[in-house]
Amino acid sequence: MYQERIVLSPKDILEKEFKIDTRGYRPQEVDKFLDTIISDYEEMFSLMREYERDKKDLIDENMRLKGEIRSMRTKLEVLRDNPSGDINNVDLLRRLSNLEKIVYGDK
Known about the structure:
mainly alpha
């Protein structure tokens, strides 16, 4: 996703050659600066890949927790219709509340 929006890759920077003029920049300084840029780019790409993995994991966990909430709501409806169950309504509501806090955060 982000690779489509970023023009230069670390390899592009590394392989860039500048024309040398008689009054141009010192090649050693340019190379040193470009090495720093390449290092930053590589770190940025690494962080972005890590964040993409984290985001996917969080989305998966969010979907799982929403499924648990749906399941708990279904159980609650069944228990309301059949009050002779082992779990009382207070326990079920407390569990449902805890799951909602996990999924949606404390508000």
